[in-house]
Amino acid sequence: MSVFDLSGRNALVCGGSRGIGADIARLLGQSGANVAVWFRSRQAEADAVVAELRGLGRSAVAFKQDLEEIDELPGAVARTVEEFGPIDVLVNNAAIADLVPVSRVTPELMQRTLQVNVMAPFFVSQVIAGHMVERGKGGRIINITSTNGFVGEALLAPYNASKGAMEMLTKSLAIELGPNGITVNSVAPGLIETEIGMDFPLKDEFWQYATEHVPLGKLGQAKDVAGAVVFLAGEAGGYITGQHIIVDGGLLCDQFPRMQFYTGEK
Q: Which 3 state secondary structure label does DSSP give 145?
């Protein structure tokens, strides 16, 4: 059996109706996993992902859940497990980001960002990890963070803070859950071509400027992130925990781009 084969495993993807989350759900299904998709408002898109998965012969179901409602999460997990089955792989993908200057960040904006991006994945992980421990079969928790968890970016202070927090939570959970055979890792995307990023109020020239800062010379695609998730979800990633895989086309390895200015002279 392939070390990338996820046959017989049940995965939950939070924020799985579109963008990176949808591609993660699809690739998990293509790799053999049954997939539950949590979504906040995009019912039609979530249903389309579920239909694709069922077309592959997988068990798949969509559950509507607003991650901002922290008190509802234990019950939402219980409902998912009851209707779908025990969770072997949890992917915390859902997140929000608002492009605003520091001077315009309100307490409400900061609180909402931290609730959705940090508190929700923590408490979902807490409940599902409890189920994993009770079953005694181990499990995988994979947090989708960001390169913003390692370097700052203008106009995204709450988002930057939330992703930095998720990187440390990943390590903390890995330490405590490791003895139970549960691995906890993060996948940190860089500039990925998704709806959320393309909707930011930026001049068109930004994307050319951004691409010039990526050594591979192009924006990433959602499927690039999904591949790293499937690796960590399977046996191939079984001895990896408390780590991060950065999927950024080399963005963070180039301190400041200078190749285009090189003259070839001494």
A: coil
Higher pLDDT, 259 or 93: 93
Q: Mind giving me the DSSP string for 58-109?
A: --EEEEE--TT-GGGHHHHHHHHHHHH---SEEEE---------GGG--HHH
The number of residues in the chain equals: 266
Q: Per the domain annotation, does 204 fall within a domain?
A: yes
The total number of structural domains that make up the chain:
1
Contacts of 116 (CB under 8 A, 6+ apart): 67, 68, 94, 95, 96
2 is a domain residue: no
- Given a cut of 80, whether residue 3 has pLDDT beyond it is yes
Return the active site residues.
146, 159, 163
Q: Please give the pLDDT value at position 34.
A: 98
167 neighbors 149 (Cβ within 8 angstroms):
yes
